[in-house]
Specification:
This protein is of the alpha+beta class and 554 residues long. 31% of the residues lie in helices and 18% in strands. It has 15 helices and 21 strands. It is globular and about 65 Å long.
């Protein structure tokens, strides 16, 4: 998911006129809105001693039993089922605290399961804090905010925008009065239980991030972390939670206002039963999906040196954006130290001059540089592809190897993210919403894929997994988080997860006789001129708009 992009062009004049009229009304309404002043934000912090809980004790016992040389342990979560059930298991296992920080939580069936379990955790005394970027809390997605009015659950919205919450388009238009501030979004993604175990990576929360989307699904990667590094994650969460840009939901809207935002029959949107207004007063046992306890056996964890890179919360509020070091700045300095091989996975890849200089230096030293990003047909952010396309020929000229994810995957993508045993994660077996087939290429489940993982592997020994894209938006506009792990085994595992995607589901881009060509996964057939699988109308629109869009806005 990317911010902010205009909707794809409409082919009907009448619909276009209605859209223009709606836009004008939204702008007028937004001009009347403002954020509340003197907001009450009680300060709170993460659990001080994780070993007060079973999760903390188990991690300490494992470290002692194997004589761990390092103070933090990790496990890659490359499949959607592992990514989803691991989060559910953390909610079920938490005894004291749950801290969730996300750019987007979408209201759909998978979210309904999180709601049920979060409510159960709160009922047994767990303090739940949810920090959510405000931009996507519109329409049906706003219903997730109902949890803020329940005991033991607190929700704060980061960098809220004044104006209508009825639609994302209205939200975009309502921000035109302060576009510079609206561009700065909290993109961090963390899921922390009892300050003992946490998950970070590229995924937001929603069906498309767990292989359950009906139109398309995101290829992503997470890492589960335990031990000392989680306390650094929690410290970062606290810094954002207690920042003046974090507004308690109650200061921005009321339950009655949420009722007014419920979809009507004229605009039907499925909202999980758990988020209906009366759900808080009805017993809602989270029994639809049986989730095994999280496997924290020593054989499943890799203890390794690690470092957390996190942008300061004030990055979003700073008037002089770009003057302080950021997560992406740190990664640029890290890339400069690569000796043999640099592999980058970035769905939105707009390198900019500084990164191009790093690549040129690496190539002059004989370092192999490979980049996996989205093709135009696969991306959910066409304008970001424009920024990438500006650099494509220069990258190829200097010897950077480029791979572009295809929209229709052949199976390699399932090895990296979807997994062959993915099942419907919500409403499984219910009469009103029957379970869907296990294979994502089966009937009723999308086979279209869009890359969303943000990963670097340096010299097959250093792994980086985080929320950041390698573009100027992540460097200058958004706040980001990245986890650095020095582990040859985890680095190689990440490469093994990506290998089938490069082989089966990505075009290899090259220059032939001075022209761009895209080699299909069979290594023989080529396509061009023009972006493969992308409509001519979209390509034309981007050629017309592209020259006028600065890199930092893409």
């Amino acid at each position: 998911m990317r911010f902010p992009y205009p909707p794809r062009p409409c082919g009907l004049a009448a619909r276009s006129l209605r859209l223009v009229f709606s836009c004008l009304v939204a702008v007028w309404l937004a001009g009347c809105a403002s954020l509340p002043a003197d907001v009450y934000r009680p300060v709170s912090h993460a659990l001080q001693d994780p070993q007060e809980t079973a999760l903390g004790q188990k991690i300490a016992q494992h470290a002692s039993a194997i004589g761990a040389r390092h103070d933090s342990a990790f496990r890659l979560l490359g499949g959607t089922e592992a990514a989803y059930t691991s989060r559910l298991a953390l909610v079920d296992a938490a005894q004291k605290t749950l801290d969730l920080q996300y750019y987007a939580i979408l209201v759909d069936e998978s979210t309904g399961q999180f709601v049920l379990r979060l409510r159960e955790a709160a009922a047994r005394g767990v303090r739940v804090r949810i920090l959510l970027d405000d931009f996507n809390t519109t329409g049906a997605n706003a219903q997730f905010l109902r949890l803020a009015f329940e005991p033991n659950i607190q929700i704060r919205l980061f960098n809220p925008l004044p104006g209508s919450r009825r639609s994302l388009v209205g939200r975009l238009l309502g921000s035109l009065g302060n576009l510079e501030q609206a561009q700065r979004r909290m993109h961090n993604k963390m899921f922390i239980a009892d300050n003992a175990i946490g998950i970070t990576g590229g995924r937001n929360l929603g069906d498309a991030y767990f292989g359950q989307g009906t139109d398309s699904n995101f290829i992503d990667l997470d890492v589960l972390a335990a031990g000392r590094i989680v306390r650094q994650m929690s410290a970062s969460f606290d810094a954002y939670w207690n920042n003046e840009l974090a507004y308690p939901v109650q200061s921005l809207l009321s339950p009655d206002e949420l009722d007014a935002l419920r979809p009507t029959s004229a605009a039907p949107v499925t909202i999980p039963d758990a988020l209906h207004p009366d759900a808080a007063h009805t017993a809602q046992p989270a029994a639809e999906i049986a989730v095994a306890p999280l496997d924290l056996s020593p054989a499943r964890l890799t203890w390794a040196p690690s470092l957390l890179l996190v942008d300061k919360a004030d990055k979003i509020a700073a008037e002089d954006v770009g003057t302080e070091d950021t997560v992406v700045d740190g990664l640029l300095r890290l890339m400069e130290r690569t000796q043999h091989d640099l592999f980058i996975v970035s769905p939105y890849f707009v390198p900019g001059d500084a990164m191009m200089a790093v690549f040129a230096k690496l190539r002059e030293s004989g370092v192999r540089v490979r980049v996996l990003t989205n093709s135009l047909a696969a991306t959910d952010a066409p304008l970001a592809h424009v920024g990438y396309a500006r650099y494509r020929e220069r990258l190829l000229d200097m010897g950077v190897e480029l791979y572009e994810m295809r929209a229709e995957f052949n199976g390699g993508a399932s090895a990296m993210s979807f997994g062959s045993t993915v099942r419907r994660v919500a409403s499984q077996g219910s009469e009103s919403s029957p379970a869907k087939p296990a294979s994502l290429t089966g009937s009723g489940v999308a086979s279209r894929a869009s890359l969303h993982a943000k990963t670097l592997v340096l010299d097959e020994s250093l792994l980086v997994v985080g929320s950041m894209n390698l573009d100027l938006r992540s460097q200058l506009q958004n706040s980001e988080v990245a986890l650095l792990i020095r582990s040859r085994s985890l680095a190689r595992q990440a490469l093994e997860l990506a290998a089938p995607v490069l082989r089966d589901d990505a075009y290899h881009v090259a220059l032939k006789d001075g022209q761009l060509v895209w080699y299909a996964p069979d290594g023989q057939s080529t396509t061009g001129p023009g972006e493969p699988d992308a409509g001519k109308g979209l390509q034309l629109m981007l050629r017309l708009i592209g020259p006028f869009a600065p890199d930092e806005m893409l």
